[in-house]
Amino acid sequence: MENSQAALLTLGLLLFLKGCSALELKPVTDPVISEVGGNVQLQIKPPGVVAAVAWFFSPAVIPVASWTGSAPVIFPGYVNRVTLNTATGSLELRSVQLNDTGVYAFQSTTVVSGTLESFNGNVNLGVYEPITNVNVKPSLAQPIANQTLNLTCEMFGSQTISSRLWLKDGQPLSTSDRITLSVDNSTVSFNPVLQSDKGTYQCKAENPVSEVTSAGYRLEVNYGPEQVSITGPDSAVLNSYVTFTCSTQSIPPCNYTWYFNETEAAQGSQYKIASVSNADRGSYTCVACNSVTGRNSSAVKEFIVIDKEEPTGSGSLSSGEIAGIVMGTLAGVTAVALGVYLSVKLCRNNPHDLKPAPAQSSPGAVTYENCKVPNASAVYENTSAVQRAGEAKNPDSTYTGLQFPDQSTYSTLNRA
């Protein structure tokens, strides 16, 4: 019965207000924003003394509350959560929900200087769920260099988002032809992702009642292996201790496999030889493998073993050995020179022997052709490059290739 009477009063008020010339009255605040569960004030300040007021929920013109000079009337659906201020005509809504979002229209009459005047207007109410959490979700669990990567801004608690802002290392993200954003800024795309993109990424999301920034997502770009190298000696003496170390540029760190003369020998970044033997000489290959990128690369080191008895320097002769060879060579040259001297002297003592021999020489005759240096080729090999060059320029000088410590000793040697 009371609801029926209230409805009739409200209807009568509406008819009365419509029959009056009404002025537009701006609310104190418009729009009014609230999160779910909040309390809001739809405030108006009409001039003069309020004589009557009514609030409706538009556009369906659902009555909310009214007052015509007696006790305010609260309509179904708003009982116990609406308060009407009869002094100002303002309306309070408590524990608002999403379905309270909309336009609230008011109509009122006031007495100004003894004159009855009518006012009307609207207040827009927006009710929103707050954003409770924001996450950055990568399209790849383990991003790999030179592949496409997307980062998506995921939001929880509210489906109403006013804006999204991407941050890298705390600063707004710079875009380019390679780094792009979706129309609503919900996704950032790297096409492709590079090592220079590594850093901490965050997404800041806002709506009218909340602002939440995600936890930092640390982007590590997996790559490699690149520039594989082996450090360690190229040679070592018998029974010594040797360590080879394999290294590379890679994220994550690589797995290493060692091959000795193409046969798998060890795992790990280091290969150690506790006591070097001749069996350890050969080719050592390190293969670096990145389990995330699926790529591998290798480096090779050739290793030789040196006997302890041999001096360092790839088998060079000692000073004593060199002196012995020199003395032996000089003695050989002296003997050869003496033989030449005796042969030439003999030829001078027998001038007839220097004449051209007949077609058939007599037995035992000594000819010019027999005055040759024994083992001449061996002596020639021990002459210097300068001496050999002199012989090439003057092939008729039979003995120019011979050099003696004391030239005066052999000054009597003349060409026959």
Q: How would you describe this protein?
A:
The protein is of the alpha+beta class. The protein folds into four domains: 2-128, Immunoglobulins (Immunoglobulin-like), CATH 2.60.40.10; 133-219, Sandwich (Immunoglobulin-like), CATH 2.60.40; 224-306, Sandwich (Immunoglobulin-like); 319-353 and 366-410, no CATH class. The chain has helices spanning 2-18, 319-349, 376-381, 385-393; strands spanning 22-24, 32-35, 40-42, 49-58, 62-67, 73-74, 82-84, 91-93, 102-112, 115-128, 133-138, 149-156, 163-168, 171-172, 179-181, 187-190, 199-207, 210-213, 217-219, 223-231, 235-237, 242-251, 255-260, 263-267, 270-273, 282-289, 296-306. Strands 1, 2, 4, 5, 6, 9 and 10 form a seven-stranded mixed sheet that branches. Strands 13, 14, 17, 18 and 19 form a five-stranded antiparallel sheet that branches. The longest helix has 31 residues, at 319-349. The radius of gyration is 55 Å and the shape is rod-shaped. The model is unreliable at 15-19 and 312-416 (pLDDT under 50).
SSE layout and pairings?
Elements: H1 2-18, E1 22-24, E2 32-35, E3 40-42, E4 49-58, E5 62-67, E6 73-74, E7 82-84, E8 91-93, E9 102-112, E10 115-128, E11 133-138, E12 149-156, E13 163-168, E14 171-172, E15 179-181, E16 187-190, E17 199-207, E18 210-213, E19 217-219, E20 223-231, E21 235-237, E22 242-251, E23 255-260, E24 263-267, E25 270-273, E26 282-289, E27 296-306, H2 319-349, H3 376-381, H4 385-393
Parallel strand pairs: 1-10, 2-10, 21-27
Antiparallel strand pairs: 3-8, 4-5, 4-9, 5-6, 7-8, 9-10, 11-12, 12-16, 13-14, 13-17, 15-16, 17-18, 17-19, 20-22, 22-25, 23-24, 23-26, 26-27
